[in-house]
Amino acid sequence: MNAPTTRHSQGTPSWLGAVNDRVGLSALLDHGPLTRNRICELVGVSKPTASMMMSRLIAAGVVEESGQLAGSPGRNAVLYSARTDRPLGVAIAIDAFRMRARIVDAAGGDRPAVTIALPRDAAARSAVDEVSAAIREASAAAGTDPAMVHTVCIGTAGYVDPGGEGALFSETLPGWPTTGLREVLERALGITVFIENDVNLAALAERESGAGAGRDVFALLWLGNGVGTSFDVAGDLHRGTFGGAGEIGFLPLSVEAHALDEHARTSTDLVGAAAVRRIAEARGIGGADFAGVLESITASEARDEIIDEIGLRIAHISLPLLATLDPGLLVLAGPTAAVGGSRLAEAVERDIRRLSRWYPEVVATHIVGDAVLQGAHAFLTAKVREELLGRVARLAMP
């Protein structure tokens, strides 16, 4: 007796239609409004097939007619556009007392960012309330429905252990749960939550449109209140087993590095905000806060001298990173790097070569603006896009 024949969905009209629909929707997300003829060229289908694709996608609520293209022979051609008002995400970058947020759609559109001040009293802080406020205010700024937000990405200093109880290791989120943060937010808000290290997100931004674009491997060194690194291999970030890869700010200094500053015991002590303030104050330069100190350094006649001193310190704390990962490109990012610019990069590269056997190319970040928020936006665009394309595939399932 012959075995019964099993019918597989692969190769059936519904499966082929789903594949075409995903490719067609991807083309609209990548290129913007397109005519049927242009869709045929990009996707490689016939005009009747393109028409059926657009009809199915319109019925599914993910594509709409958005006008006509004038100027061609005969009747004006209809333009088709992907609907980017649903689903949506919110990219969030959070410091101790300030949060920036922006709506993210499947096409990666440029939506306005909002800044929200946070309470300084830990007792008045609430992770659920603050993320809810980010969703609400970002949606209002973009003119979108907050109910369409299905995913958020939170970029913060520190990291969440992906195993165990999901312990939060961060000094910049007072009042937030120290365990189970992701589960708390997802349960209360009914959305998917990603919590990412801010330096990793800065590296994503650098990969997307900065110095890391087109490079196989690079490392990013963040220089701000604290110090951290991220390692990128062809767009894949190495986070480590416990999520703490790159947390070099806690590393103790070598004898030679400690000799540069008697107050320093760790990498953060040597080049973090407190160290930069000490270097500036030794030359009579001050400021109300870290940002003020950096502004004063920029305007000072001693700027180059200060940048060179900071560069030597950065070279010392880079050596463990270079010995472990041996990247060909080291990108300097963060507030201190923004002030130092190309001179700081040149000083670090020169001193690394003088101190060690490594000789990476060292460059200043190419990202203008909020690198962490830009990285969260890039991360979330891929997630929202996959959700939208997944919806098309599910509609085609028998």
TrEMBL record:
InterPro entries in the cross-refs: ATPase_NBD (IPR043129), ROK (IPR000600), WH-like_DNA-bd_sf (IPR036388), WH_DNA-bd_sf (IPR036390)
Domain of life: Bacteria
Gene3D superfamilies named among the record's database cross-references: 3.30.420.40, Winged helix-like DNA-binding domain superfamily/Winged helix DNA-binding domain (1.10.10.10)
Pfam families: HTH_24, ROK
PANTHER family in UniProt: BIFUNCTIONAL UDP-N-ACETYLGLUCOSAMINE 2-EPIMERASE_N-ACETYLMANNOSAMINE KINASE, ROK (REPRESSOR, ORF, KINASE) FAMILY
Homology family: Belongs to the ROK (NagC/XylR) family.
Protein name as annotated: ROK family protein
Source organism: Agromyces lapidis
